[in-house]
Amino acid sequence: MGKASRRKVAARTRELLNATQSRLKALGVDHPLVIRSDLPQEQKISNGISRMLDSEVGEDASLDEYRHRANAIVLAWNVSLLPLEEQANTLKNLGDFARKTDPGGAAAAQAELLRLIEKKRLMFPDDKRFIVSCDLQLVGNKVHVTAAAISAPPQRSATS
User: Fold this and answer.
1) Which long-range contacts (CB under 8 A, 24 or more apart) does 37-44 make?
2) Which of 22, 88, 145, 158 has the fewest Cβ atoms nearer than 10 Å?
């Protein structure tokens, strides 16, 4: 990557960080965001998505199929972090949405989301980060996942 490209990436990252912090502040979350780009590969959120994706998609799948499955994985990952009542609401809303486009597909969509939620819990039980972006690119003949996640700010104890 050339010098100009690196500058563009850095500028886009700053813009995204500033926009995200502004949105969070508007929602009442006034904690500064910290970008962790120094994580070992096995701790990156993209690694988690990639591992789930590899177990879901065959090698001969198209980039569109990879993207479709990645979107389902991201949805399941984030839903798995919600309180149980909110998970149930999300599943109901998914069913309602699916009924509008494919009346017979609502139950299958809900079952697939539940399956992926359980898979996330089994593979990454302690990962509580919400995925905020995910992009897939074809690099050579391999699918490369780029993703970002956000962790909840540390909770203050009653004594602090």
Assistant:
1) 44/147
2) 158
- Find the angle CA(9)-CA(36)-CA(70) to the nearest 5 degrees: 75
CA distance 110 to 26: 32
Task: Return per-residue pLDDT of the chain as tens, 160 residues.
Answer: 556 655 655 676 677 677 777 877 787 777 666 667 778 888 899 999 999 999 999 878 999 999 999 999 999 999 999 999 999 999 999 888 888 988 888 888 899 999 999 999 999 999 999 998 899 998 888 899 988 888 865 555 555 4
Q: Are 92 and 114 within 8 A, CB to CB?
A: no
CA distances to 37, 59, 141, 145 from 138, rounded to whole Å, are 22, 13, 6, 9
Prediction pTM value: 0.78
Contact 66, 136 (CB under 8 A): yes
Which stretches of the chain are DSSP H helices?
3-26, 45-56, 63-80, 84-101, 106-123
